[in-house]
């Protein structure tokens, strides 16, 4: 090892000497060239020298050379000597570390040997790992293949299991279908049987399977047995509906609906039997409901209060007997022929429960037909709603409703047509029209359309009957015998009272509906009663009595119409205008009766100018009798006017207004007379006989307070 080290050192030293020989000799390369020779050369350009010196002045070595002014050759030799010294020092360092280097060399050779062995070992491992990787890849491919086969087998097993489950007929299912009672478990078994039947009928692959040939006969036997059994069961339940006093709705909801799957099963797997069940239910319910409605109608007919007959018309004469002295209607059950009264309450009770006939009969209560009409149709709506929902839930057939209710509709139509043919109650007819409208709204809110056609038909049949009865009232006014109707009485006539109550009733029933056709008919009726009233008034011998008669009738009519509607309608405005014009006529007649000379003078002469100098100038002597006559009896005349008004007019408030109007008009006439006297020459002589305006005003206020 020492020899090797020495050889290396010698070799290194020899290489060092060779390196010294190859050192670049700057002096040999430059030669004896001096700075002066470079400067004096014509080929050397000194351009930019100053700039380069400026850039290098900061370099320590260059600055040191320039400052010392040393020759380049000498500096080069100094550098070479320094390098040789450093090289010798470096060789000595290597010599001192030679032992360590030898040791390091040995260690490296040992490591190289060990690494060579490891390389051989790892090479073997690599070959083995390559073989293992190939095996793993092979195993992975086999695993994937086995996984795919397993997946396919599971899918096949699943499908096969489902097929077996769907097509197999368990013994338990057979026992339940054949021997079991129809209950919840039976219903669940029916559902399983239904799925199996659908499975073998729908899937084409199942139809081609050999298993089906073994199972299908058994399934068909089970289907027939199930259909037969549930048919007998459901028909028995349906016949229970025919028992007397059976609550149909409770039986439907609590019993039949529990077995609605039975009907679904029959519809899917026994259509012919389902048709029989459907027909049996329709027949049963048709008869049961028809009988119920027929019995209810018979019970209601016992509660009916007859309101009007064909002779109960506005313009028909009222036969007076006994104590009825002024043409008043006789006291009878037909008091509501023309007046609505409490009958309108039925529209507020529209959704109340139907009448219970035996309870009403026990209390001896009687009702107008519209009350019975509402109860009958309330029962119809509730029954129809319940039956419509049941048909939809149980049979899933809404159309069945119309077949079931063909019988009840026929029973109700027969009854209603017989009532309608003998109905002469126009107010009752209008109430029924409004009731039908409210019932249509109720059914609309329930979202049940099954009664739409029926209610429309009833409404359509009511309007012509109402129009016919209304025209009878209208013709009774147009064709009335005036001589027979006339009575020597200026108080409101019973025909006019009938008209007012009848019109007010119809107006009140039209407030929320605004029926233009009804308003037109009422206008026709108003024109007819106007003509009749004028004819009756003309029979009175005196104009004053005619006017009083008209005023009393107009005032009464207005009062009745005001109660019917808060809004002033066309008819009310018409009678108010007539009242106003006739009041003005009566005031003139009343004043002429007591102050005819004064009024005649004021109207003909009071507007003349006494100072005009004409031959017919007003003289004091012409006016003096009028002044003295008025002064002597004006209070007595007013008292007579007061008594006349009190006895002439039924309505004291109306009489008060008329008397006030008469006294006000009298004051105006007298004021014009006093103004005329002031313009007459010598008229001041009559001042002592004139009544002061304040006195007349006081008297007017006094009579105003007496009412």
TrEMBL record:
Keywords: Golgi apparatus, Protein transport, Transport
Domain Vps52 C-terminal: 283-587
Residues in Vps52 coiled-coil domain copies: 93-266
Domain of life: Eukaryota
Keyword Ligase among record annotations: no
GO molecular function annotations of the record: syntaxin binding
Family: Belongs to the VPS52 family.
PANTHER family: SUPPRESSOR OF ACTIN MUTATIONS 2/VACUOLAR PROTEIN SORTING 52, VACUOLAR PROTEIN SORTING-ASSOCIATED PROTEIN 52 HOMOLOG
Protein name: Vacuolar protein sorting-associated protein 52 A
Naturally occurring in which organism (per UniProt): Carya illinoinensis
